[in-house]
Amino acid sequence: FAPWADPASKPFISFKNVTKKFGDFTAVNDLSLNIYHREFFALLGASGCGKSTLLRMLAGFEQPTSGEVILDGTNLAGTPPHRRPVNMMFQSYALFPHMTVEKNIAFGLRQDGMPKDEIIERVMQMLKMVKLEQFASRKPNQLSGGQRQRVALARSLAKRPKVLLLDEPLGALDKKLREETQFELMDLQQNLGLTFVVVTHDQEEAMTMADRIAVMSHGKVIQVATPAEIYEAPNSRFVADFIGDVNIFDGQVASAGAGRVEIAVDSGLTIKVATSDKPAKGSNAGFAIRPEKLKVLRHPPPHSSVNAASGELWDIGYLGDMTVFHVKLKSGKVVKASSLNAQRAVDDPFTYDQEVWISFAEDAGVLLRD
Ligand code: ATP
């Protein structure tokens, strides 16, 4: 499933040069983005980056200041929210407290004037889908947070929208329930064959659930890619830093070409990066590498002046599944390395303050030009 990789496939949802201003403030800035049918798409970014505003323009609660929002070939300008084949589920769930679960789910269908027997059937279907058949006659305050979340989900899906919009859907759940619900949502999305667009500031949530993620900042999309691409090949310092842990080395380009760039880092360290990029000699460049791609060694590697540096083991953190090492390099920079304990040589542990080397491969990290 990768319609975005196929130039022949048509996007289901398109934002075309969309700008949204509130007074002088630009919440969404000339943003273009395609989302495909049956995709589980995540908008990820810090608070205030404009992700909810983007979702609300798709739902019809906000109008773009300029630009177009296209759904299934139709420009949505002028279509009111209730006429759009999208439904939105909010973090607060907004269930009616005085209504039973059943009535909550039926509410929108009644408003639409669906015949009574059809409503009953649809509500049963929805209750079954979210495994709440026995809870049909309870009120929301007689349910757990996870159950309330499932009622809200059932209510949003009852009208069979083509697109479900979820604004921080799992924010109110505790960690364990959140993880369970993530998988339930993914199952449901797959089984129903719907397009889900979820807004979240939680990178783990986005990484777990989404087919693709748009990383946003200040009303712009910085990178759109699969979770693996975002993590392994961040396109910028912002994305490298925003997603997961990272070590960034800064320096100047010493040479570029033949599939490789050499960066001279301040402390005498030279970094060779495998890349087809050819930045100008002398220009500023960075190298981003994830902790698990840094090796910690007891002895200097064979070519110890390139992609390697010595230092002191500053801190060892045992996390159960993995161990995290902080190494203070000769330059004073502290870097983070991690290794899975399942792969550790248990009989030969590292000790604090020990002299060690870090080393990494040319293709273990990415070049940063910004
Ligand atoms: P959060 O995760 O906190 O909800 P977000 O990325 O979803 O953040 P938005 O809700 O899209 O951010 O808001 C983007 C910016 O636009 C914020 O700075 C917000 O204050 C501003 N904003 C949103 N709605 C309005 C409004 N109706 N009037 C004025 N400013 C607004």
Automatic annotation (TrEMBL):
Catalytic activity: ATP + H2O + polyamine-[polyamine-binding protein]Side 1 = ADP + phosphate + polyamineSide 2 + [polyamine-binding protein]Side 1
Ranges for domain ABC transporter: 13-243
Keyword hit for Translocase: yes
Gene Ontology CC annotations of this record: ATP-binding cassette (ABC) transporter complex
Listed EC numbers: 7.6.2.11
PROSITE patterns per UniProt: ABC_TRANSPORTER_1, ABC_TRANSPORTER_2
Alphabetized InterPro entries for the sequence: AAA+_ATPase (IPR003593), ABC_SmlMolc_Importer (IPR050093), ABC_transporter-like_ATP-bd (IPR003439), ABC_transporter-like_CS (IPR017871), Mo/tungstate-bd_C_term_dom (IPR008995), P-loop_NTPase (IPR027417), PotA-like (IPR005893), PotA_ATP-bd (IPR017879)
One Pfam family from the record: TOBE_2
Keywords: ATP-binding, Cell inner membrane, Cell membrane, Membrane, Nucleotide-binding, Translocase, Transport
Record keyword DNA-binding present: no
Single GO molecular function: ATP binding
Family (UniProt): Belongs to the ABC transporter superfamily. Spermidine/putrescine importer (TC 3.A.1.11.1) family.
Complex formation: The complex is composed of two ATP-binding proteins (PotA), two transmembrane proteins (PotB and PotC) and a solute-binding protein (PotD).
PANTHER family in the record: PUTRESCINE TRANSPORT ATP-BINDING PROTEIN POTG, SPERMIDINE/PUTRESCINE IMPORT ATP-BINDING PROTEIN POTA
Function: Part of the ABC transporter complex PotABCD involved in spermidine/putrescine import. Responsible for energy coupling to the transport system.
Protein name, UniProt field: Spermidine/putrescine import ATP-binding protein PotA
Chain's gene name: potG
